[in-house]
From TrEMBL:
The keyword Lipid metabolism does not apply. Its EC number is 5.2.1.8. GO terms for molecular function: peptidyl-prolyl cis-trans isomerase activity. The lineage of its organism: Bacteria, Bacillati, Bacillota, Bacilli, Bacillales. This is peptidylprolyl isomerase. It comes from Paenibacillus montaniterrae. It comes from the Bacteria. It catalyses: [protein]-peptidylproline (omega=180) = [protein]-peptidylproline (omega=0). The chain crosses the membrane at residues 6-30. Residues 178-270 form the PpiC domain.
């Protein structure tokens, strides 16, 4: 799993809870939304009135009741899902109260940050769907909430021009346009295994097929060895491997390269230098970073919103 997946895991776990509880709600309240013209088969499936003692499954001679299912799901996901729902509503209320909205450009930028490290939006949404069961609509809702929360948190924070100027000087090296490398790799346990793979590649074997068959990195192997787009100074990848990749021609293969995780064979698929940001974009970025430093953790901002807007919680 790439570093970006680990950074998002908390949000993803909360969203999984939302999906689980949504299934319970739909199941439990379906009769109240269904029309009166249901077929006999639908009536048989849904049961009369969805009584709590309705049997929803049978394993061997043991019956699983609807109420047991609901209680189990609520115990597993109820608290975190309820909190996620309340946070969503609180963010919307605070934004409306403060007259804050998220523009299309701001949402696009938030999405671009979320998919950083993936080859495309499609690959990112596919990963979220396949690994976590999250629809594109659900993922976009979480991204939108997070971006809106940041605007709410920093809306009333004062940052001076002098602070921005000093911050930009301090971060000057980090703000230089970065080179981005599109890489695939095959990771092996031993040098000999990696060398054998290199030999087969030199004889015409397909890189993606070899990655699927031989790589010990399961996530990238499932995508033909793809690591997506990586910044050339990314601290989460082996420095020696990235240095080698910087010197390669696009389309070529190099290895074995010793890394902390094993021996890597890499293929450079593309190289580009990101566009330089305008002065206005840099100053807005600096203002936001400085404002967030004053605000503190966004988790505390969420809790403040909950304290302000939530009046009753019944469990």
């Amino acid at each position: 799993m790439k570093k970006y997946d680990w950074l998002k895991v908390v949000v993803i776990v909360q969203a999984i809870g939302m999906v689980a509880l949504a299934a319970v709600v739909v199941w439990h309240y379906l009769p109240y939304f269904a029309g009166s013209g249901k077929s006999g088969a639908a009536n048989q499936l849904q049961g009369e009135g969805h009584a709590d003692d309705e049997v929803v499954a049978v394993i061997a001679d043991k019956e699983i009741l609807r109420q047991q299912l609901i209680e189990e799901l609520l115990e597993l996901y109820g608290d975190q899902t309820l909190e996620q729902m309340l946070v969503h509503q609180a963010i919307q209320m605070a934004a409306e109260e403060k007259g804050i909205a998220l523009s299309a450009d701001e949402l696009s930028q938030a999405l671009a940050e979320a998919i950083s490290g993936y080859e495309s939006e499609e690959q990112y949404f596919e990963m979220m769907k396949n690994q976590f069961g999250l629809s594109q609509k659900r993922v976009m809702s979480d991204i939108r909430d997070h971006a809106l929360l940041i605007k709410i948190a920093t809306h009333d924070v004062a940052v001076s021009d002098e602070q921005i100027n000093a911050f930009l000087v301090e971060k000057q090296a980090e703000l230089e346009p970065k080179q981005k490398l599109t890489l695939s790799w095959i990771l092996s346990d031993t040098y000999d295994e990696a060398l054998q793979i290199v030999n087969e590649l030199s004889e015409g074997a397909e890189f993606a097929e070899m990655a699927i068959e031989h790589s010990i990195d399961p996530y990238s192997a499932a995508h033909g060895g793809s690591l997506g787009e990586i910044e050339s100074d990314d601290p989460f990848y082996d420095r020696g491997m990235l240095t080698e990749a910087e010197q390669m021609e696009v389309g070529t293969i190099s290895g074995p390269i010793e890394t902390e995780d094993g021996y890597a064979i890499i293929r450079l698929l593309g190289r580009k230098t990101e566009a330089a940001r305008s002065e206005a974009e840099l100053r807005e970025w600096a203002r936001l970073q400085l404002a967030l430093q004053q605000v503190g953790p966004l988790s505390e901002v969420k809790q403040q919103l909950l304290n302000h807007y939530v009046t009753v919680i019944r469990k």
